[in-house]
Write a structure and sequence with these properties.
It is a single chain. By secondary structure, the protein is mainly α. 59% of the residues lie in helices and 0% in strands. The chain folds into two domains: 3-21 and 136-206, Orthogonal Bundle (Endonuclease Iii, domain 2), CATH 1.10.1670.10; 30-131, Endonuclease III, domain 1, CATH 1.10.340. Helix 1 packs across helix 11 and helix 5 packs across helix 6 (83-101). The radius of gyration is 19 Å and the shape is elongated. The two termini are 36 Å apart. The mean pLDDT is 94.
């Protein structure tokens, strides 16, 4: 099976498994999504969803957030990890949104990536999930599975993103990146599958499946 054939089969299986692709991070609008994605760095979506209600109850707009002391933001988001850096970034980007963008989240990769604490992956998630712009955010699940499924030979997330964008039509990117994440979490975890146990891996790479040893 060629790489393109594997990609087509993966897309087919994942679309059947996950016809709906709800956004994993709870949010109200592009701003709260941006903050939630920023908090999700090196933190699970589930934990972020436990923390953001208290944060957004305190301030759910950039105008309100820029007035909250950084230490107060830090105390709320501490369970998400990296709280000193994240709290400062939340405060600073909120001020920039107010002063430079009229309180709105910009709808371009360049302007998003210019904000404190916002890298390419975060910008891609916001562009895809808040504004519907085709993007293929690559997180650890996607990077790992793309390598496991031999969709990329890249060692970096940048190369993985470029390879996946070549394999799949842009109209599918926004749903497909979520489907891969869902599949990785539920069926093909880093240690639980090792590329030979889950249904897709067994189908795509039957040679990896080790024969079951029977006792004589």
């Amino acid at each position: 099976m060629t790489r393109a054939e594997r990609a087509a089969r993966i897309a087919e299986v994942l679309a059947a498994l996950y016809p709906e692709t709800p956004i994993p991070l709870d949010h109200r609008d592009p701003y709260t999504l941006l903050i939630a994605v920023l908090l999700s760095a090196q933190c699970t979506d589930a934990r972020v969803n436990l923390i953001t209600p208290a944060l957004f109850a305190r301030a759910a707009t950039p105008e309100a957030m820029m007035l909250v002391p950084v230490e107060e933001i830090r105390s709320i988001i501490r369970p998400c990890g990296l709280s000193p850096r994240k709290s400062q970034a939340i405060s600073d980007l909120s001020r920039i949104l107010v002063e430079k963008h009229g309180g709105a989240v910009p709808q371009s990769f360049e302007e998003l990536e210019a904000l404190p604490g916002v890298g390419h992956k975060t910008a891609s998630v916001v562009m895809a999930q808040a504004f519907g712009v085709p993007a293929f955010p690559v997180d650890t699940h996607i990077h790992r599975l793309a390598q496991r499924w031999k969709l990329t030979s890249g060692k970096s997330v940048e190369q993985t993103e470029a390879d996946l964008k070549k394999l799949f039509p842009s109209k599918d990117w926004n749903q497909l990146h979520l489907r891969i994440i869902f599949y990785g979490r539920e069926h093909c975890p880093a240690r639980g599958c090792q590329g030979s146990t889950c249904g897709l891996c067994r189908e795509l790479f039957p040679d990896r499946v080790k024969p079951v040893k029977t006792r004589k």
